[in-house]
Amino acid sequence: MKIFQQMLQLRERKRGFHLITAEVVNALPQIHELKTGICQVFIQHTSASLTINENADPTVRQDFEMYFNKAVPENDPDYLHDDEGSDDMPAHLKAAMLGSSVTIPIRNGRLALGTWQGIYLCEHRNHGGYRTLVISAWGE
């Protein structure tokens, strides 16, 4: 069994849903050495998240942002955690809903994503800054 791991610092992005599949693949080229395996991508932040979804039509990413903003509104007077701005607590809630990692099978040296699937960075803050990922892959 082979095990590989790499840290990846993503550039700052505006609030929204951003495809990062190519960045993940480029950060860990050793994936190509694995015939069969698993790749886990983990984000080291509590106000951004990761998910896998539609990678072709950009309106899907816009609709995701619209939905989550409706589902978890800013400026809710019931929030106690608001020291870092009105987008902070909603960002934590959105990140909890979507999750901090994705797991993808590796098949013949490639991520076994479906035809229309991509890895999203879900940036929930207006000014979230750089985001750090830990990418781990293992297999044979």
Automatic annotation (TrEMBL):
<dbReference type="InterPro" id="IPR001602">
    <property type="entry name" value="UPF0047_YjbQ-like"/>
</dbReference>
<comment type="similarity">
    <text>Belongs to the UPF0047 family.</text>
</comment>
<protein>
    <submittedName>
        <fullName>Secondary thiamine-phosphate synthase enzyme</fullName>
    </submittedName>
</protein>
<dbReference type="InterPro" id="IPR035917">
    <property type="entry name" value="YjbQ-like_sf"/>
</dbReference>
<dbReference type="Pfam" id="PF01894">
    <property type="entry name" value="YjbQ"/>
</dbReference>
